Amino acid sequence: MARDLARRLAVARGDEPADVVLRGGTVLSVFTGELVPADVAISGEYVAGVGEGYEGSEIADVSGLILLPGLVDGHMHIESTKLMVDEFARAALPWGTTTVVLDPHEIANVFGLDGVRSILRSADQVPLDYFVMASSCVPASPFESSAATVTADDIARFLAEEPNAIGLAEMMDFPGVVGGADDAIAKIEAATGRQIDGHAPGLSGRALNAYLAAGVRSDHECTTFDEALEKRRLGMWIMIREGSAAKNLEALVPLVRRFGPTNCLLCTDDLEPDHLLEQGHVNDLVRKAVALGVAPADAVVMATLNAARYHRLYEHGAVAPGYLADVVAVPDLASFRPARVWKRGRLVAEDGRALPVPKVKAPDWMRGSVRVRQLSGGDFAIVANGRVRVIGVEAGQIVTKALQDEPGRRNGVAAADPERDLAKMAVVERHKETGRIGLGFVRGFGLQRGALASTHAHDAHNVVVVGVDDDDMAAAANRLREIGGGQVAMADGRVVGEVACPIGGLISDRPVEEVASSVHAIGVAAREQLGATLPSPFMAMSFMALSVVPELKLTDRGLIDVDRFEIVPLEVG
Question: In 123-271, which residue ranges form alpha helices assigned H by DSSP?
Answer without folding.
Answer: 152-161, 174-178, 182-190, 205-213, 225-233, 249-259
